[in-house]
Amino acid sequence: MKAQIYNRPHSHYFTKNENPEGNMKSIQEERLRVSLQHRKDIENIVFDVFPDIELPPTLIMQCKRELEDMIRRLRCTGNDEFCDELKTIIDKY
């Protein structure tokens, strides 16, 4: 009997020389970057439509905590420059 070779469904994402874990890390970084950009886009739309809106302090603190948690996770990927930029923005509030 001949052995059958089954292709893994995600095998086309990796070349022979790529590290799958490294590739997954870059995918996670990209998802986080898109998520942050999406939140910023929403914030800009809200403030454009309602320029005089005042967010409750509890909501601001909750968002700040969530962003700081995301920054801690992102720092593990070695993207310190981006993290420092985000931290500067957060500290304004």
Automatic annotation (TrEMBL):
Ranges where the record places region Disordered: 1-22
Entry protein name: Uncharacterized protein
Organism: marine sediment metagenome
